[in-house]
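Our collaborator T.R. sent over the components below with a one-line note: 'Predict the complex.' Nothing else. No constraints on interfaces, no templates requested, no preferences about which chain binds where. So this is a plain run: every listed entity goes in together, and whatever single assembly comes back becomes the starting point for the next discussion.
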Amino acid sequence: MSKVIFQIEGGAPVTIDCNPGDNLLEAARRANVAIDAPCSGNGSCGKCRVKLLEGELDCIISRHITQEEWEQGWRLSCNAKVTGDCTVLVPDIASAYQSRMKTADLSSPEELAIFEAAQQGLLESGISFENNFRAVVFAMSAPCEDDTMPDNERLTWALQAELGVENVHIPFPVMVKLAHTLRENDFYVCVKGELQGDTFLCMDITAADDTAIVGCAIDIGTTTVTMVLTDLTSGKLLAKGSSGNGQIRFGADVINRIIEQGRQGGKKKLQDAIVKDTLTPIIANLCKTAGISARSILRLSIGANTTMNHLLLGVDTDPVRMDPYIPSFFSWEGLLAGDLHLPANPLAPVVIAPNIGSYVGGDITAGTLASRIWDKDEMSLFIDLGTNGEIVFGSRDFLMSCACSAGPAFEGGDISCGMRATDGAIEACTIDADTMEPTLTIVGEKGQKPVGICGSGIIDIIAELFGCKIINPKGLFVREGDRVKRDAHGMGRYVIATADESETGREVSINEVDIDNFIRAKGAIFSAVDTLLQSVDMTPDCIDKVYVAGGIGSGINMQNAVRIGMFPDVELEKYQYIGNSSLTGAYAMVLSDEAIRKCSEVAANMTYLELSTYPGYMDSFVAACFIPHTDARLFPSSL
Amino acid sequence: MSKVIFQIEGGAPVTIDCNPGDNLLEAARRANVAIDAPCSGNGSCGKCRVKLLEGELDCIISRHITQEEWEQGWRLSCNAKVTGDCTVLVPDIASAYQSRMKTADLSSPEELAIFEAAQQGLLESGISFENNFRAVVFAMSAPCEDDTMPDNERLTWALQAELGVENVHIPFPVMVKLAHTLRENDFYVCVKGELQGDTFLCMDITAADDTAIVGCAIDIGTTTVTMVLTDLTSGKLLAKGSSGNGQIRFGADVINRIIEQGRQGGKKKLQDAIVKDTLTPIIANLCKTAGISARSILRLSIGANTTMNHLLLGVDTDPVRMDPYIPSFFSWEGLLAGDLHLPANPLAPVVIAPNIGSYVGGDITAGTLASRIWDKDEMSLFIDLGTNGEIVFGSRDFLMSCACSAGPAFEGGDISCGMRATDGAIEACTIDADTMEPTLTIVGEKGQKPVGICGSGIIDIIAELFGCKIINPKGLFVREGDRVKRDAHGMGRYVIATADESETGREVSINEVDIDNFIRAKGAIFSAVDTLLQSVDMTPDCIDKVYVAGGIGSGINMQNAVRIGMFPDVELEKYQYIGNSSLTGAYAMVLSDEAIRKCSEVAANMTYLELSTYPGYMDSFVAACFIPHTDARLFPSSL
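Returned assembly:
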């Protein structure tokens, strides 16, 4: 046995016994030490670095570690084997997570506008924003010798009188607190619950002045989780916030997480990572912001992809990635917050926007609901750019959907200097055709220096590099200059910020491998659109409207996305960025019973096209892996 | 701070920090050291003795500790205060508890007869022994490219076909195991659940060879908990067992436990004592005996008094003992095993036989159900002798009930040499009128020497002492002899077994205080019967049948019970001992949906008479505190 000490930056050291040959990343997971490992230990992302302080590790040399870093002791934990006692420094993932935990400023009209627009739109489509949750305040007489009704019958009787209902159901969590809540408040109380036909379901009993009833709408993305709290009576937004998905330590993409959940204890581990480590702190944070108790949350709604839904519920997720790729469930009825131990009223229903296939999940049905393409005569394309890309095409007459594994490139993954759209990310870029000098837009305060490149930035850079003929349609460097460098193997790269210009003292650049990765990602999106259109015998001409959703951000330059052949070449005014439509869909569902029904209807009416087995898809993909495309006629505006 | 070390007989020592002046019994409770304290530290029972091994304790002298014992270091922990570091020996309560954990021998026809008789009787009263629990075994086709139904829809479809139901409900605990159970068993499975009208509620999914579906009927007595497991399909008894109620460490009677639950954290403590420390080990034990998994238990039924029901559910029990004595609930719908964390299928309904007042609980409604007095033209009296005494009188036309605080005398409490009906208990006795020598029947193997006296033994001894004119109607000794002794204060006692004759080397005797305690207990019973009859303008002549139930045991000598004025003086053949009717009632309810409905009906039709406020009850009680009674005309057979 060897002792491995993890010296965690900003935390207490953790010691674990290891056998010689144990993988260091695995050991860290066993010891519950969080090391950022988006590729789940495949050695491809280079993020899981640790610094050897004492002792030895058996490591292979990685392209992610420079000679200088190697000499300083930096190693990739995923390719390090324990050989004896050692101490390693673990960079602080917690602070990275904390920095991703954000609470939105709801005094900003921009934050509110998107929800107001969604509500307004759905109202226009005939979806009323009504629900049956109620907070009822009333006084009862106390029992006495002449009035010997026990507490539950007394409450039933009072609620029948107050609400005109026939039946009252008082479940266990309310029954156990009934006796002392009534007496503590001299039989003057607030009862919260839901009208269900002629029955009132009591969900809580509180002091008469605690009347808050709240909905919680959640978008669980593979990378980021976003949430809003809303007043169930007025529909007012109470708080909005987000944070990274805590499952990321088990892999940046869904496949690695599915593999992980299939291991011993894996389902619980992945479920804890989302429920305990991610949703619970965000809810706590937002409840604090809104000044409410989590017990006031009477309904939750969730927009999440199929894998996220399965992992959230602790259901075996292997069917999602195994032939014939049929998930264990599409829709799920009757789930309660208590089932998941979410910090909310334990009786609060958790409404899961239904999945329609292994790779088109509830985030897409919720997003489709929000986009309202199901209510239009015109032909609409809906593209959600998340860690995967999902596409819906159709109108009020039909809906087709498919998914493509675009990979994490749009969120900065698979790119050497890629990052999420947080402080220091290059989110937009132009390049001077003559000088080849870039002009950057950087996320953060004025004066923020670049740290890396986020999705919208990569689109711009590649479009500009191609536009300036610095790279060719294959993504190879064909012009030389101060900012074009080559390594010992001749691989070209474009230096967007030199070590001096950057925030971190490290060069920010994009190389041919990055560009190749990105071309494959954009090719996946385009060929999916192309195939989906072909499957209904249509062409891009037929598209009346394109809704782009997802975490790539409102900064996305649609023209550049078309220029590189990522989106079909239709008039720019047809494009509209609609933000996180999974969240706006979930917001509609938490407030409106009709929205829930409509979302189920949308899911039931949507046809799922499995691209991996669709004839011609692979050819279409290969053809799309050029800038803009091997068939330039598809991009008339580039001609 | 002082260190107190509890040296537990047969266990590991436990150390706790105490402040000077801390009560030793309280300190033991904080340290989770179990000391038997039936009177909950009131100093009256003398059971909480510990032996001081080292250090000092500040104690007052108690009549329960002799001078010799005092010198040996014996102290009552309830009146001992910590003054400094000390070590005390704690007698092993665990072994006492273990000895009370019993598994019945179901090969014995006597054990089965009472349940068969109950079932037969209820069938005669038109109660069918049917329920809607089912175990369905079937094979499904696996999903494939041409059959893309997800697991839950696939299961729904299969069950609709198998059972002809319209709806199938698959709750969370089944949903989460659905995917891997189906695949582990190649889609050949058993589904267990309940038919509810046109809906089938899935409660479990298992391998096709695991088809057991089991009911668990429980009688929760204040002192003893008894349970049977029964096959829900065949009605066959699978196992039967009992153990002491773990709440006893917080008081032998309900009042002390109610006080305890009202303290900080008390509800959880009392609930844990019954759920975790009592029901869980019995269920585990019986499941092992029956060779089934606890998850096969699909319904539980509970016959328990009002306080036990409240404590079990963790509901504030103060309303039970506080004016106007109206419990928080009579009946409780929709309770599940998972709510209580009972080891059973978490979705298994827990059917609580309804309470009808603070001191007439579900044990009595269940017992009344089993007695079938609700189905008879004749006038029946039903007497349940537990820690309290409850009485029901009536016929198919009306039912009246009341309760009296007889105290624990019938179970050996409040009696210096009293004990429960376990090994060594004197359960029957005759005394020779001339020699005054006793002839004893003792519980246990042949050759077992006496340890103490249980309820039925006390009735016999007092009846015989009175019959032999050794005591007078007030219970005072009026004859002298070898076996009649007096202490320094002149208090008389009858020595049933000398120190030499006894098992423990301690004399077994009954003294004037014991007799006085018992006279008050039997007086409470008789006056309750008397008052109940008066309340409906009837006299003992009207009684056609007397059913005696409860833990006092089948050994009870009805003639002696009449002779001492405990039961009304009616023909002996009218008396019938029906055992633990709360358990037989619960057994009927776990098997039969109609029995559940009938029990609710019985409860709804039963009138509760609050004796404490009933005019004339106190006079009746005082008059009954003689042997047999101040009004000898009430006992013509004794004249």
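Summary for T.R.: The mean pLDDT of chain B is 91.
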